[in-house]
Design goal:
heterodimer, A: mainly alpha, two-stranded antiparallel sheet, 17 helices, B: mainly alpha, ABC transporter involved in vitamin B12 uptake, BtuC, 12 helices, about 75% helix
Chain lengths: ~350, ~300
């Protein structure tokens, strides 16, 4: 047991050092690395309720977009009138000083984490009573409805979009912006990982798994399933909101359906990445997100224009042929590594039966 | 918010007639959805994109100089084979599996379809002119495009024809048997694989008809498929599987809701209202069932 712990320690410290050194080692890819961190956070937290709880949501993009709008609105609204800012390129008339910018984004991120979690808690009781595919379709509807409605609200820019405050010009270091957003997203990633890791070792995860495997029985065993489902969704929403807030600042421009409530990209990505890596495992979504990001960035430039076709085909292939994902495949191949004890006799007899 | 509609009775008549005629069209798409859901137990997110593809077939005919109304005959024939090919390529692998897998797989198909249509037909909003003129009612205060009446009539004709076909023909009987119990049907000599392919083909053909009608009554755009999927899904969960009169009535109800939402909330919230209605219907049914300690299955 001691030995395993030591191995883990080496692994984690290695990863943290790699994460901290990454913007210096690959300084040309800082934006890509930030994306990667955000994608991992999204996949990991989607997995918490999609993979562990069995509630496959297409609507976590709702919290992502909400977080994005909230961060930007708070960042602007704290110092300047929001309506005038969005009316006609307010970023030219009003300029954030360095302190204002960082204060704004700090408070904005805090709000963008808490409000989506509260929203998830508030709608959770109604939505999480739906099961299986009804839940999936309902959340799909929620995500798209949010995008359509946000596209009609004047104060956050409506259809013409919302420019988030530009990075303060007083900071002369050209690399500073990239580094700031990278370290911010890396911090959120570490936070999310520590939290998810903690959940994986706790009773909470067992309850979520019980809900996934058979909700009626779990309820019959005296577990208040609704309470745990809501908490599970709130955790997802919390991190989705944070991720959205960071992405809003990084992209610098928020469009209701193409950036914020982007069900066609981010909303699908998070599901796909978790499935690619393996639902219901700690490392699956992380590996899935990394692989997916490399595939996306490496290949998409070569198939310009065809990337959505490739994405669609990829979804179909992954879902049909690898529904268990990479970790599921490894688990089948090397069950001993995952701590499963296999009775050799039983295994052989099963093979013969086939 | 704009409540002008409640002060002008003629506006109300206009919205109601528009809604009902539109609703019949939605019901046709929903009937296809109910068919494949009932028989194959899959939810097809690409339903709306099949509709749009059917519409583009009619639009292509219109560009070639043929009257787009002929699309209601040509489009289903082509779409039947598209559906059949789609079944053989992808759908047959998701039939017996978890519904979530079918949702995600058809979501992938939807993305591919959208993008291919975008390449082939361009990203512009297009409409095929039927030049049927308009009917004026109540001293010219209510205008009704004849193409809408045409589309409602054609939808009804096809729906009734399909019901008769399902009742009388051998394939129809096989489809109904498979829907009741696929295993038993297989034992009694029904080639279920063939039945599934035919069901999906018929569904696609229905989408083709609806698409051809949409191309002359509404507008086409490669990315507007999903709202049609959601509308048909909504109609099916309200009406239940295989209950045609209920499908027609809830289709009309949805059409009415949309037209009124359009007037009251404004056109920019129309699609948003449709998706919110879906959420409300699901939540309403969930609370209704949870009183009996049941849930939507």
């Amino acid at each position: 047991m001691e030995k395993v712990k030591q191995k883990d320690l080496i692994l984690y410290s290695g990863l943290i050092i790699l994460g901290l050194a990454a913007p210096y080692l690959f300084s040309a890819f800082k934006v890509q690395l930030t994306y990667l961190c955000v994608l991992i956070v999204l996949a990991m937290t989607w997995n918490l309720q999609g993979g562990e709880m069995g509630y496959n949501s297409f609507g976590n993009i709702l919290f992502y977009g909400l977080g994005m709008y909230l961060t930007a609105s708070v960042q602007v609204g704290m110092f300047f009138p929001l309506a005038e800012w969005t009316e006609s390129g307010g970023e030219k008339t009003f300029v954030h000083t360095t302190t204002q910018y960082f204060q704004g984004i700090g408070v904005g991120l805090l709000v963008s984490a808490i409000i989506p979690a509260i929203v998830a808690g508030a709608i959770g009781y109604a939505i999480l009573g739906l099961r299986g595919h009804y839940f999936a379709i309902c959340t799909l509807g929620l995500g798209i409805a949010a995008g359509e409605i946000a596209g009609g609200i004047e104060i956050i820019g409506a259809g013409q979009g919302f420019t988030t405050p530009p990075f303060p010009a007083e900071i002369v270091d050209v690399e500073a912006r990239g580094k700031f957003f990278y370290f911010l997203s890396f911090f959120v990633l570490v936070l999310a990982f520590v939290f998810v890791k903690y959940i994986y070792g706790s009773r909470f995860r067992l309850i979520l798994n019980a809900i996934r495997d058979n909700e009626d029985k779990a309820e019959a065993m005296g577990i208040q399933t609704m309470k745990y489902k809501i908490v599970g969704w709130m955790v997802s929403a919390f991190f989705c909101g944070l991720a959205g807030g960071i992405m809003g600042g990084l992209i610098g421009y928020i469009d209701s359906t193409d950036v914020a409530f982007d069900g066609r990209e981010m909303g699908v990505f998070m599901v796909l990445m978790a499935i690619l890596g393996g639902k219901g495992t700690l490392w699956g979504p992380i590996i899935g997100a990394t692989l997916f990001h490399f595939f996306k960035e490496g290949l998409w430039t070569f198939i310009l224009g065809w990337q959505y076709v490739a994405l669609g085909v990829l979804i179909v292939v992954i879902v049909i042929y690898f529904p268990e994902g990479l970790m599921g495949w490894l688990r089948e191949k090397y069950p001993e590594r995952f701590g499963e004890v296999i009775d050799e006799k039983d295994r052989k007899s099963q093979v013969e039966l086939k | 918010m704009d409540f002008l509609i409640f002060q002008a009775p003629m506006l109300m008549v206009q919205a109601s007639l528009d809604g009902i005629l539109l609703g019949i069209l939605f019901a046709l798409i929903a009937y296809g959805m109910a068919l494949q859901w009932g028989v194959m137990n899959i939810i097809n997110i690409a339903q709306g994109d099949l509709v749009i593809l059917g519409g583009y077939i009619a639009y292509t005919m219109y560009l070639a100089g043929i009257h787009p109304a002929w699309g209601v005959i040509v489009s289903p024939i082509i779409m039947y084979f598209v559906g059949w090919a789609l079944y053989k390529l992808v759908i047959n692998k998701v039939v017996d599996r978890d519904l979530f897998i079918s949702i995600l797989a058809t979501f992938g198909i939807a993305i591919v379809f959208q993008q291919l249509m975008n390449f082939i037909f361009g990203a512009d909003v297009v409409v095929a002119q039927s030049e049927y003129g308009t009917t004026m009612l109540f001293d010219n205060s209510v205008t009704l495009p004849n193409s809408k009446i045409f589309s409602a009539v054609i939808s009804l004709v096809y729906a009734i024809a399909l019901v008769v076909y399902m009742k009388k023909s051998k394939l129809g009987r096989a489809i109904r048997a498979t829907a009741q119990n696929a295993r038993a049907a297989k034992i009694l000599g029904v080639d279920t694989e063939k039945v599934y392919a035919a069901t999906f083909g018929i569904n696609a053909a229905l989408c083709g008809i609806a698409g051809a009608l949409i191309s002359i009554t509404l507008t086409l755009h490669p990315y507007v498929g999903l709202p049609y999927t959601v509308r048909s899904f909504m109609i099916v969960i309200v009406a239940g599987l295989g209950n045609l009169p209920a499908v027609a009535i809830s289709g009309m109800g949805l059409g009415l809701f949309e037209e009124f939402a359009d007037y009251i909330l404004g056109t920019e919230f129309r699609i948003g209202a449709v998706f919110m209605l879906l959420v409300f219907i699901l939540v309403y049914r969930r609370f209704k069932l949870s009183k009996k300690r049941e849930y939507l299955k």
